[in-house]
Each structure stands twice: as structure tokens, then as C-alpha cells.
Amino acid sequence: MAGIDECISIEWTPEFAAYPPGARQDGWAVCTLKAPFYEPTTRAPVDIVAVIDKSGSMHGEKLDLVKETLEFVIDQLKESDRLCVVTYDSNIKLDFPLTKMTPDNKEGTKVIVKAIRDGSSTNLCGGLLKGMEEVIGRTGEKAQVASVLLLTDGLANVGISNREGIMEQMRKLLDPSPGKTPFEGTVYTFGFGTDHDARLLESVSTQGGGVYYYIDSTEKIPESFADCLGGLLSVVGQNITLKMNVCGDNTITNVHTLKKITWKTLNKICEVSMGDLQSEEQRDILVEFKLSPVRAPGPDNIVSCQLVYFNVITSAMDTVECHLTLQRTNDPRGEASKKLDSQRNRILATRSLKRARELADEGKYEDAKKVLQETGFTKKQNSSNSFTQKSKRASR
């Protein structure tokens, strides 16, 4: 069993510390996952698949920056690390499969990278999926940490080119049909040039559990890749699943997260696939629920949750449990949680920005402006001390 400083913690923060017992009512709570500090004494091997955009839009400075970035990546890898390179324009090419970065292989890889030339159109979705498939189909001695690095200007115009379509194709590899191997890694995106599609690259990296970086000069390369590699090597928990089971006649009406949600029983039992968590990383999931009336005042168990994941620190599966318990009383409910209010405002702002962008893309600029103005006036602004309930390790 993992020690208290070796496991991911769960903490619930309800909007209010108390709720009236006799009425059916709405409620909100934030579920927070927090990883412990972890700094490995020796660096574990990594498998990296670099997906390189060599389309016509990458001509000149952008492609030169991509090559310099990839050469920097090669220099940082150890002999036990493996690198694969996929290039794409209208067509997809596997330049070489996952290969250990011995001194000789590094030199050969650099020759291949230097020879990359810009080509035709941009099948970004095809290149990305090929990179993810190379991780899925790994053979030999697989590294515990695997990642796809997508280096592009994000201007897709061949194949599936719209953001929603690309996200859907990624989801099929992240959560495939029964019998097929899922993608178990992360996707980091690197945007080159001032005209790249930042919104698309942010969406790809978010869904892939990675980070989006903007590269506008050679000075940004070491900093960005050092941050990326540091994140890959400080993973504390892998393949994290958060299971929530609603107690009694209460129901969950909404779970706000970009991660995949699977409802085992609608509004009662769900699982959230959280991916990986890095050292000291924190993630918040905002949950809306409907409280049923209770006969007598007192503590009321609302949600029982369980976190199941592979603990990298202990090299074993780990389970952490936590309960959301509310006080049902006719006493004053107190002030609303500032933490929850902040998270709710973030959700409202994100929704409004998304809707405003859609309206702006349709040329409805006044409507887009109105959406943003309405959000600014309707967000609640509360301040209080938070009331939290923390996790405990499951007994095994």
C-alpha cells in the first residue's frame, strides 16, 4: 500500500457547508485531485513519436524551426530512449519506427531530419493518428512513458480538417471498441509561426493529456522542450479513473470536465478517465447534483468516490477513496465557497467564449459581443472560506 505522501489525494469542496433537510434542491461541489511531490533519482526511458508537418504552409522559417526543435530533442535523449519520426503533407510517411537513440542512431536521425523538405497540403489529422498508432503498436521493450509530439502550424486543409472531426478521431483511439488496444500516452503540441491554429492545437493537447507550446523563435525551443520532457518524466499516476457513485435518492445532473465520462447508470454512477497526473499537479472537476429531502437533520452522504490508478512511485496499482458528506440542517448555511465560485465562473466564461467564437465565425459580431457582455454581468462573485472533505487510502 502506498504511504500518505506517495498517493494522489481527493478532496471535496461543496458550495455550502450545510443544506436544509426538507426540500429537494440543487447543489454544487468541486472534486480536487492532487498529486504528491515526486522527483525520480534516475530518469526512466521514454518513447517519443515526433509528428512533423512538412506541408507547403511550413515553407521557410517555420520548417527550419521545426528541424531545430527536433534536433534539440534528439540531443536530449539517452541511449535507452526511443524516437520515431512521422512526416506528413497530403500524404503520411513513417520516416523510421521507434529506435533507440544510440550515438550512431542519433547521427542517422539528424541526417533524415535535415533532409525533410516542404511539400503539398496539410493532412494534420492523418499525421496525428499515425503518430498515436505508432504508440499503440509498440513492440520490444516498451518505455513506461510514451508521448506524441505534434510539431505544426495547425493549418489543416486535407482529410478531416475541422476541430470537432479531429477530436472525434482522437477519441476513437483513446477509447476504442472492445478488443482493440487504446492509446496509452500523452499528446503535446508545438505551434510554429504567428498564423498557426492555436485553438486546434490547444484542443488536441488537452484531449491528449499534454500541453500546447507556441514556438516563435529558436530561443523558445530549449525552454519549451525542457518543460515538456520534465512533465513526461515527473508522472506520478497513470491511467487514472475517478469513479463516482451517488448515494440514496440524490442524483448527479452534470460533471464539468473535458475528460471522457462513462455513465454506468445515468445520473447515479459514472467513471471519468483522467489520464496521467504529474508531480504536484492539481485538477478540479466541478459537479452539479440534485439533493433529495431527508427526514431528520444530520450528516447526509451524497457521493462515494474511488480513484484507481497505477502509482509510478510504488510501481503498483493504488486505490484512494473519499466521500462527499453534507450537513442537512435548518441552521444558516453560511457563505458560498470561493473556490467553487471561481471554478463555476471559469466554466461560464469558457462556455461564453466558445459560443462567442461560433457566432463570430458566422459573422454575427454583435451577437458574439452580447454573449460576452451578458456573461460579465451574470457571473456570481462570492467570497468565503472553503469547507473541504479529504480522501483516505482504501484498505486492501
Describe this structure in words.
With 396 residues, this protein is an alpha/beta fold. Helices cover 29% and strands 35% of the residues. The chain contains eight helices and 18 strands. It has helices at residues 61-76, 103-114, 124-136, 163-174, 198-207, 220-233, 338-361, 365-378; strands spanning 9-14, 18-19, 25-34, 46-53, 82-88, 92-100, 145-152, 186-192, 209-215, 235-246, 251-256, 260-265, 269-278, 282-291, 298-311, 316-328, 389-390, 392-393. The radius of gyration is 23 Å and the shape is globular. Mean pLDDT is 88; it is low at 377-386.
Shape: globular
Main sheet: strands, sense, barrel: 7 strands, mixed
User: For the terminal residues, how far apart are their CA atoms?
Assistant: 8 Å
Number of helices: 8
Strand content: 35-45%
Helix-strand pattern: EEEEHEEHHEHEHEHEEEEEEEHHEE
Average of the residue pLDDT scores: 88
Helix content: 25-40%
Per DSSP E runs of 2 or more residues, the count of β-strands stands at 18
Structural class: alpha/beta
Radius of gyration: 23 Å
Instruction: Flag low-confidence runs.
Output: 377-386
Nutshell version of this structure?
The protein is α/β, with parallel strands linked by helices. Helix content is 29%, strand content 35%.
